[in-house]
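cron nightly-structures :: item 1 of 1
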Amino acid sequence: MKKYLTLAFCLIAASLAGAAAEPATAQNWPARPVKVIVGFAPGGPTDLFARLIAQKLTEATGKNFFIENVPGAGGNVGAVRAAQSPPDGYTLLVTGGNLTNNPYLFANAGFDPLKDFDAVTVGAATPVVLAVNPSVPARTVNELVAWIRANPGKESYASPGTGTPPQLVGALFQHALNLDLVHVPFGGGGPAVEATVGGHTPISFGAAAPAVPLIQHGDLRALAVTGKARSPTLPDSPTMAEAGFPDVEGSVWTAVVVPAGTPKDIIAKLHDMIVAGLAQDDVKAKLAAMAYVPIGNSPEQCTAFFKAEMAKWGKVIKDAGLKAE
């Protein structure tokens, strides 16, 4: 009898072990809560986007998609933690330009954007706004360029910080046009535009959200946006291409990636649910309030976008001699 009980126990244990080892598939995923890593502190645009998407994924699946904020080293700490997580569909990383830029800014960012992650989608983007203090005698980008050239080394531009997407657009503007312009980094978009409003740094490159209310109130003058199309929140501001500078283009974007090796059918299911969430009116309204436009491209398009961003901004970082502070 003891022998039969032992055999039965072994069979049950083997069965349970086999069930535990069953690989995750789109049919049985998610079977438990999913971690959504954000490499920045709560309250910023990446975090807010992550919370919007996590809420919609929770509603769609009935399983909790919970945020884990892991700030540090310009997003590197969170990215490394995500890269080292099991590729089973239970860890997502919501990220921005730091994913593709930081390997060029840091001596060792700790991750490879293409080898360590599989792309899901670029969720949303907002243009960078080129704005000036109203006292600046320039109402067009051409007039601003002439003014800078008439005052070499005397004028400065504010950005949210060295290596941030707005600062890289500023560096592209400066070096593409061979302008003698001083960069003044700040600890975020809010302080940067406040410095421009105060006249301390007369020019600003920043994301649209903190700038739009100040532009509408007359505290800042928007000269152009650096997206491929005009911003719905600043419809009267031309693109840099319309202003005559088509090479000065860039945006602040947010994407979702997973650890490399995550099953393709889970990635496809996750992508479809995110795109469905982005199409909902409440999400579109909340993104619009942050001056973001939903995108929701395919994993293949997202990967191609990452490669293009790395080639473009890697060169800008190298040419400008930029290093993370």
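cron nightly-structures :: done
The mean pLDDT is 91.
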